[in-house]
Amino acid sequence: MAKKKGIKIIAENRRARREYNILEKLEAGLVLAGTEVKSLRTGRANLAQSYVRVVDGEAYIVGFHISPYEHGNRYNLDPLRDRKLLLHKREISRLYQQVTQEGLTIIPLSIYFRDGLAKLEIALARGKKLYDHREDEAKRAAEREMARRRDQ
């Protein structure tokens, strides 16, 4: 059976870039059940309120909603269950160290299929303060104004 090539984006966490300063990005695999994969292929996922937590040397995504597969009946699992992430031990320990010592957080940015496998893009991030939001909005407004004047 030939694998499909390329990337198909399923869901993105748009609020993440607005509410956090992204410091570093990583790609992680996911441990999923069969009906969850089928539901992802139909594009039924929501990353909005999810985050990554490290417990006993293993990384889990918490709050990631995958809608139950319509034809899955008794094989469907809890849509909000914690799902294990597949990362190297040294990546997990480095992330855990930075989260505990530096006050950072790990958030999911997007979920996608790459070469037929479900992958999750996660980021090490620092939460923005209110003045950071105002500063970003001022930058965007200035860029819009410059583009408007340039087009005239």
Tell me about this structure:
- It contains 4 helices and 9 strands, in the order βαβαβββββαββα.
- With 152 residues, the protein is α+β, with helices and mostly antiparallel strands.
- The strands form 2 sheets. Strands 1-8-9-2-7-5-4 form a 7-stranded antiparallel β-sheet.
- The protein starts with 6 loop residues before the first strand and ends with a helix.
The secondary structure category is alpha+beta
SSE topology string: EHEHEEEEEHEEH
Classified by CATH, the class is Mainly Beta
- State Rg: 18 Å
Q: Which residues sit in consecutive blocks of at least 5 with pLDDT less than 50?
A: none
The assigned CATH architecture is: Beta Barrel
Give a short account of the largest sheet.
7 strands, antiparallel
Task: Report the mean per-residue pLDDT as an integer.
Answer: 88
Q: What is the fold named in CATH at topology level?
A: Small Protein B, Chain: A
Termini Cα gap? 55 Å
Number of helices: 4
Strand content: 35-45%
- Could you name the CATH homologous superfamily? Small protein B
**Shape from CA axes?**
globular
- The main sheet orders its strands as 1-8-9-2-7-5-4
**How many separate structural domains?**
1
Helix content: 25-40%
Let me know the number of strands: 9
